Amino acid sequence: MSREKRLILLSLFTGVALMLVKFMAYFITESNAIFSDAAESIVNVVASSFAFYSIYLSAQPKDENHPYGHGKVEFFSIFVEGGLIFIAGSIILVKAFYALIAPGPITNIMEGLWLILSTAVVNFGIGEYLKRRGVALRSLTIEADGKHLQIDAISSIGLIAGLYLMKVTQMAWIDTALSAGLGSYILWSGYKMLRKSISGLMDESDVAVMQEVVDVLGKTRKEDWIDVHNMRIQRYGRELHVDCHLTIPKYYTLTKVHDVISDFEENLNNGLGMPTELFVHADPCMPQCCHYCNVKDCPIRSEEYTKHIEWTSVNLPKNMKHFREC
């Protein structure tokens, strides 16, 4: 079994156990705020189940129907998780509104709080572990699952503080206010996850990934990589697909051009530390490129090298050679 599957199973089994503990706390207290926390745990379990399937599917090799692989399913997994969180937040807000109309008694507050505290500690610890492993493994699904567990833990801590305040002040409305606040927070968290998944499915530019690529190219830059532009990056799960134009000396032979592009691809793959598929279009240099071309002993140079152009996340995606900006 892969590392990703083991991590998701850890999240799933933990989620089931903590969900049972939270519902136990709700049944002994009858607190709307604790019910809100328990309801979100159902989402954790369902989301982890779907995440397990998405990890399995994203690991499948490319085939005739999916030439880019199955990695996009991770964005769909985040969409499902975010949608479930959004629905849970809506249900919690409806129940909080109902509690304003027909409030009920709350009992055994301290016993319930100790149970919720234990779930918060476990959730935050496992969430942090999953988040770190998700970043290390380049898995959006595991990282999102870890963040979700930490959101759950933070909301539980707020719940504990509020219910303790209610016990001290004897103000019963605090329970309803907490439930409404948690519901709103959960709605916002669901919206952010939905937004992230949609941006990935729509191939929205990922500034962080682009900057990572720019950093690698800056460190490995060769003198005959005269110009890189029209760079586009798509993320498919743990893999990147990069399209770009690379300007190289026009007097190079076809074999030399192939070697330069292969070197370009190898440096980018090694530097990023994740599988990267590149489609590099070779452009011949032009006289206008000479003043920022650093090729030594160039037989066709028409102008001295006078300007170094820094490659950035702003100028690499533009569909133009850099001399147009000089």
UniProtKB/TrEMBL annotation:
How is this protein positioned relative to the membrane? Multi-pass membrane protein
What compartments host this protein? Answer: Membrane
The membrane spanning regions, by residue number, are 7-29, 79-101, 113-130
Entry GO terms, CC: plasma membrane
InterPro entries membership: Cation_efflux, Cation_efflux_CTD, Cation_efflux_CTD_sf, Cation_efflux_TM, Cation_efflux_TMD_sf, CDF_Transporter
Which keywords fit this entry according to its UniProt record? Membrane, Transmembrane, Transmembrane helix, Transport
Q: Per its UniProt record, what SUPFAM superfamilies does this chain match?
A: Cation efflux protein cytoplasmic domain-like, Cation efflux protein transmembrane domain-like
Where does the Cation efflux protein cytoplasmic domain lie?
211-285
Presence of the UniProt keyword Transmembrane helix in the record: yes
Q: Which GO terms are recorded in the biological process aspect for this UniProt protein?
A: intracellular zinc ion homeostasis
Q: Name one GO molecular function term.
A: zinc efflux antiporter activity
State the superkingdom.
Answer: Bacteria
Domain (Cation efflux protein transmembrane): give its ranges. Answer: 9-202
Q: Does the keyword field hold 4Fe-4S?
A: no
- Name the protein family: Belongs to the cation diffusion facilitator (CDF) transporter (TC 2.A.4) family.
- From the Swiss-Prot or TrEMBL record, give the protein name: Cation diffusion facilitator family transporter
Organism this protein belongs to: Sphingobacterium corticibacter
Q: What is the lineage of its organism?
A: Bacteria, Pseudomonadati, Bacteroidota, Sphingobacteriia, Sphingobacteriales
